[in-house]
Amino acid sequence: MIPKALDYFEKIYLHRSLNKACVELGISQPALSKSLRALELEVGAPLFIRRSWGLEPTKFGQAFRAHSLAISKQYQSLERDVHALLNAQLGSVQIGANLGAATNLIPESILALATVRPGIRMSLVEGLYEDLVGGVISGSLDIAVTTATTLELPTVLLSEPLFEDPFVIAMAKSHPLSNFVLEGNGDVLLGYPWVLPSDQGILRPRVVELFSRLGARAPVPRVETVSFAALLELMCAGHYLTMQPLSVMKSRLASPHLTWIDDPALTIARTITCIRHRSRELSPAADEFYDVLKGAAQKIRVRNSR
What is the pTM assigned to this prediction? Predict the structure, then answer.
């Protein structure tokens, strides 16, 4: 379903040869040459330079390919939606999320949408902020839900805040610090093993800032992981401490087993945002998911305020 001009261009770009591209496409060389000339006229610049060994992409050809790949992904997404509609379904939506959002907000949204639109197919990808932003730009993701950062968002994207979801110090309900009240500095918190993500993410520097305000050194994690399943087992089995989003602590998975220190001085502010493309219309399925997502975020705002 990808436009022929883009498909022809891609084969020429990959093979660097009209003859080899013709063989793969199953068309004549004059037809392929005519298509390339028409495309270059429409773009207004040469896309390839003829060399003794074949065709070399110009700087215009390299720039054109980056956009053609993004357009091709959009056509593939359109093809999936059309196929779904032809099969009495309601399309598909590709969602990206970081760990904190995927643990609570995204499952609630998926369950809510599946109740009213059971035919919609949903794909969820977890990733870091940079990967999610890149996915929305390329078109491989319709929507990304992630933690807001101080990084400047590319101008082609829109970011909408969904709810405030601070990180809190979490532990098992049986932990000796389950009723902890901060008095003086936070050195007592360093007397227990910690589980934290790697220092490549955005949380660890914030933990250092938090303990610096308390007049204490930051905890050195005994275990580094972003696996919530592993974290839950560790927390329930021992005296581990960690930082978790408040919404996760109030979720059905965590609330029977874990608790947290309810003290503003021991929290790290965090805003969850939804990122989508500024000029690209959402598909009907993605648009429905977007509406459900905002509704689920409102429910979390209410829960977190209690």
Answer: 0.62
